[in-house]
Model the fold of this input.
Amino acid sequence: MSNPELTGRPSSLDRKARSLVRATASTTPRRHTAATKLAQGLGWFSIGLGVVEVLAARRVARAVGLQGREPIVRAFGLREIANGVGILASRQARSRSAGVWSRVAGDALDLSALGMAAAAGRHASRGRPVAAMAAIASITMLDLACARALQQEANAARQTTDYSGRSGIRLPTAKARRTEPDRTDESAQEAGMAVHTAS
Amino acid sequence: MKALCWHGKHDIRHETVPDPKIEEPRDAIVKVSSCAICGSDLHLFDGFMPGMEKGDVLGHEFMGEVVEVGRENKKLKVGDRVVVPFTICCGECEQCRRGNFSVCERSNRNKDIADKMFGHSPAGLFGYTHLTGGYAGGQAEYVRVPFADVAPVKVPQNLSDEQVLFLGDIFPTGWQAAAQCDIQPTDTVAIWGAGPVGQFAARSAMLLGAREVVVIDHLPDRLSMAKACGALTINFDHESVVERLNELTAGKGPDKCIDAVGMEAHVGATMDSFYDRAKQAVMAETDRPHVLREMIYVCRPAGVLSIPGVYAGLVDKIPFGMLVNKGLTVRTGQTHVNRWTDDLLRRIEEGEIDPSFVVTHTEPLANGPQMYKTFRDKHDGCIKVVLKP
Done:
């Protein structure tokens, strides 16, 4: 009897185990990509930050050097909440990406408001808006990366060209069968022997 | 003549440049009949490779007809049909004599700069930065081929351009990636990336007798092309790569792993990809090595990691302790093209493989700038672009 380890031919036990593995694997799909998880995280972060900005506008304004501009802080808070809800409510990568892009636009607004505050303030009072700008800039980078990744996912989902007829190689039937042990001999032979010709 | 020239990040132009001339007695001038855009050209397009200058002619996958030869070139004659390997090699230095053509010691005319960057200089390359010689590339009507009595491969007239063009780079690159895995009949070979090199690596692993080949990507069209040769596929948008590979190998991990992705790994599927992208943005890291990390983690102990994917500089958070403790072998390098071309041309002639399977788009050279974008964005099912000057 041939040794499967040496010949590369799967034993019947191997074949059963592998078909079980394939069946099991199909039941454990990844539910969310990292980009989606990150977008969800950013969505919750948006809502949390927005609630704080609306409910504690005076404290937030003082912390980031925007004293006297509490209405702007509240408006930014409402925008954050809307962004967060938009991201979390999205079911498609494309709309989720649009939600994260709107966060990027919001970051730009935050940065410009803080930039104006820093420019208008005295030297000693510039520290807080500048520190807040640095924090927002780092979040902006994360927003940008996430938005682009989601956009790529959406683009990828759009690809539907089927190249399953482009084998390009001619393999001995036994080898073709070995690569697809759960196919019938006939279909393996067809797939193994088919050579695509570009003409 | 017309050529595709690099003018900066995402700025490639089809413009008029001076015709090439014979500069050395072993040179030849080739009139290009077909050329291709390579995945590594995208690193130039995206501005990740240092050493480019405005006006550089791009392209390192090309073939055509010899129209002029230098007086000391005894191998080629006018009218010969040749495929030109992307590595330029002298054929005489110690490395060339050993068959290590991609590290030829004499063909990089900017050796001093490359020595500083890499410690020791690799070979000169066509159309690929001044670090590797600054030679004009083959996405043009004509090309000057230095040391043309060594590397160019004469090809028969009965084979189409699309069948032999890829002998200059991606076919031997995929083949070398599989060959240096030392594939055994019991091996499961996992390949990250179903782009052109990944497709050729998958078919090479099949031809070299792998028991199972698994290709990992997230683009359905590319995965369908990988499936066509009998490979199993993993879509990393839909399932965990590590879990699935362990399931397929009864928990042992793939015996051999091939990285056909390189420095621009997809951002989005995993958290470490965001980390790499952020570090890249602040120039704290040049490459995104997600695939390297995953391969080291999932590969079976005493396995082999083969890396045809291009890396440019510095990577971060590589689990080197894991690599050492698992006793993994790492094999890398630009392709020693001429080591493989005779055998691969024979396989094409005998019908064992038809490399034209990978061509999805054929366009005039003038459409090159647009095709760079299409290829980079993977739009319209684009896997491999052939350009006709």
